[in-house]
Amino acid sequence: MQNVTKISKRKQAFIVSKLTSNFSITTKNGNCNTTVTSKSFLNCMSTKCTEKNPVQKSCSQQRESSTRAFLSTAGSQGRACDEKTIEKHLAVQAMIRGYQVRGHYLAQVDPLGISDQVSDSDRAGSPPKIILEHHKLQESDMDTEFKLPPTTSIGGKDTALPLREIIRRLEQTYCKHIGLEYMFINSVEKCDWLRQKFETPSATDISADEKRLTLARLTRATQLEKFMGQKYPNEKRFGIDGLEMLIPSMKTIIDKSTEHGVDSVIISMAHRGRLNVLANVCRKPLHHIFTQFYGLEAADLGSGDVKYHLGTSIDRLNRVTNKHIRIALLANPSHLEVVAPIGQGKARAEQFFKGDKEGKTVLSIILHGDASMCGQGVVFETLQLTDLPAYTTHGEIHIIVNNQVGFTTDPRFAKSSRYCSDVGKVVHAPIIHVNADEPDSVIHVSKVAAEWRAKFAKSVVIDLVGYRRFGHNEVDQPMFTQPLMYQKINTMKNCMDKYSEQLIKERIVTKEEVNDVQSKYEKICLDEFAIASKLTQIKNQWWLDSPWKGFFKGKDLPADCKTGVKEETLIHIGKHFSSPPKDTKFIIHEGLLRVLKARMHLLEEKKVDWATAEAMAFGSLLKDGIHVRLSGEDVERGTFSQRHHVLHHQKIDKATYRPLDNLYPDQAPYTVCNSSLSEYAILGFEHGYSLANPNCLVLWEAEFGDFSNVAQCVIDQYISAGEIKWIRQSGLVMLLPHGMEGQGPEHSSARLERFLTMAAEDPDTLPPDGEDVAMRQLHDTNWIVANLTSPANYFHILRRQIALPFRKPLIIMSAKGLLRLPEARSSISDMTEGTEFQRIIPEQGPAFQKPEKVERLIFCSGRVFYDVAKAIKEKKLNSRIALTRIEQLAPFPFDLVKKECEKYGKAQIVWVQEEHKNQGGWSFVEPRLETILGSSRGVSYVGRPVSASPATGNKQQYLKELANFLQEATAF
């Protein structure tokens, strides 16, 4: 590259003196033409330009060449300027940018004034003194007019302003009660839009009508906390005293969003302020809330939960916009941020079922605590879904309810970054810090946040900085750990009183009007309190956050659940799934062609493997109009290269073919999507998705079964216990690859024992006899746990999820070794009309013919069946040992297992498993078998001994253990 002469500082300055001229120069460098204008050149010279303009993306030689031409043209104007003046112009440009980038550090966003950003004493005399010194400007320059760059809107229609006015406006914008972080966003359009919303003179002004509405909403929020504090002084309520502006903020966001077409809002939040949000945002009747303080018995299903964990779903008229809106506040346990991905999943599902591909009608609002926002990793995992095609909700509004303390932990010990909101920068969300005791600023920020999301379909973070007037809860003593903070808080007037005084001073309201608003709401509270005091029971249906209207009406429990499908339908799906694309120009991998040929060969023999049975289950549901969604890490191909639901063109990037999308012209949509490398957020997301509509099959697959333990919080709090706590049914399917194939500890066990332990079933009680016993067990349980051995049974259990008249989560110990095992094949006749899921698969060999001759009855579940069956066959013990598979472990098939035990009345009962004795199904199965057998017969265990690890990492050790317990299982 040839050497180029560096542009002198004087020449750079010369450009600035010609800003009133509109130059546009095109130069040619090699094969590249470059256009430079005075505007683009100044942007690049005076700011860190993020715009993809010709100056930025050209090489240095190209840039220098263009600049020389620009200087030459500019010089032809003949207007010179001294270097000192130009340096000052450049200094002003840098100063403006400095405020835009770092002004939030000076912003007065802490109503307590005790944050470590800038103290009042340090602030005194800083701007403009330090500003001037830093940029080598002087007091004498304060009345000098300077040209404003195109990267600021502080001038409004003015193109130049005196330095004194420039600083005043920058201070007003960036250093008052709003701290704006946005210069990291990689879009000039978005940055310019935000600057217009905050820098333009009078942009942040609030009308008198808006102020009166804000005061009314603030009054309701404040008075409700005060009323509950008086009536229930010794009860926890986790109020928002000190952050009451959360309520007007949320209502403003909803108002503004409905103007842009939103008619459904999904709110995800922890316990802080939940009762107030229920009352004053969702508008849940107050007597429903007050009854939760009385400890009344539930009138319907469910054990219920504490009042500040419960949710709701409300359809109402928004009186500000006169539009109908549905607001759902999702139930949440004490695990704070776990609800965030669940809300995202529910919002995504609602958008899907409404055909809302741009997120125009469904909005997700997520509330965070300041400590949990930066402390809990699921926040990052959830944010990372923001722009993923199969997970995006097209922007959500995050509000940090920032009370500047985490239970008893000071912020200085809770985070390493400056702000708890810094994680939001990952997705280029603008972060707006605002003083919660400055209502006008909060309302402006809330409007901008709603408009940003509506315009750009991107996320935004509001950091609402306030304080916690009481302790972690109202009976906690905060002075133990934050004495200085609470000495300050105890002197603070509440926000409502301060704002009332402000509006009275501004002559927007009178003292009488303020008192009237307060007394009216107090009367409402008293009337609702009187209603609540007369109630004798709580209806948990009041707290249902995901109602399925009409789903449960007129549905009785059937005696069975036939899930078979016409053979012609199965063959059609199978052939389509086993064939390459009809487009001969679509090139697929040769290895895949072999896979497809093998599937087709099996199909010709009227047999199916695991992957084909799964495709037939999905395809037949799609044919019936049931939406199917499968997600997880690597699900498109399948972790074990078994699925191949997305075929990739070998020559063209992003060209794919999805066979299950093209089965029938009027089929339901099929979504199969690889997820981010996350279990916690993705499982939460899919659970949330399953809540929106019962008529869809939602599946999440762990890459390996044990990886699900990263999402244990979602499993424990929502999937296992969600129905009993919150009357929230879900048909979510969890596919957990499981099997001891000598692949080491972390690739062996899905921890079957954990899921069985959480099954809500009494091991000591036999279910009452009856034709519908299996269906009643399913209805009464909290979830279904299965360890399958047959592709046909896999097909049926997936279809049963939709055929049931209710919804239960399904946990499948999914196959690994069985995916390609020749013995693990099913006949299509096992899947045709009239067939159904088999809870157990009994012995069908020689032992079945002469049960009185059988000496041992072995029960097992899952992959180990094939190992035991092989050992029995090799030793020619088929007539002496009966081998029965328990496919559905929970709810336990008491009735069928009892029949097997009675059939082989003289046989020794043995349970065989491949997992270690303290793992697997043994501890779950043993007491149930004892209940069935009574004291007359015992049951023996055969398998690996106890171990702290799920498996050995040594292949030889694994084989030795396998041989040992197979020998024991078949020894006489």
From TrEMBL:
Pfam families noted in UniProt: E1_dh, OxoGdeHyase_C, Transket_pyr
Domain Transketolase-like pyrimidine-binding intervals: 608-821
Keyword Transmembrane helix applies: no
UniProt-annotated location(s): Mitochondrion
GO molecular function per UniProt: metal ion binding; oxoglutarate dehydrogenase (succinyl-transferring) activity; thiamine pyrophosphate binding
Matches recorded under CDD domains: TPP_E1_OGDC_like (cd02016)
Keyword Cytoplasm appears in the UniProt entry: no
Enzyme Commission identifier(s): 1.2.4.2
Cofactor: thiamine diphosphate; Mg(2+)
GO biological process: glycolytic process; tricarboxylic acid cycle
Domain of life from the UniProt record: Eukaryota
Gene Ontology CC terms, in alphabetical order: mitochondrion; oxoglutarate dehydrogenase complex
Keywords of the record: Glycolysis, Magnesium, Metal-binding, Mitochondrion, Oxidoreductase, Thiamine pyrophosphate, Transit peptide
Membership in a protein family: Belongs to the alpha-ketoglutarate dehydrogenase family.
PANTHER family: 2-OXOADIPATE DEHYDROGENASE COMPLEX COMPONENT E1 (PTHR23152:SF4), 2-OXOGLUTARATE DEHYDROGENASE (PTHR23152)
Protein name: oxoglutarate dehydrogenase (succinyl-transferring)
Native species: Phaedon cochleariae (Mustard beetle)
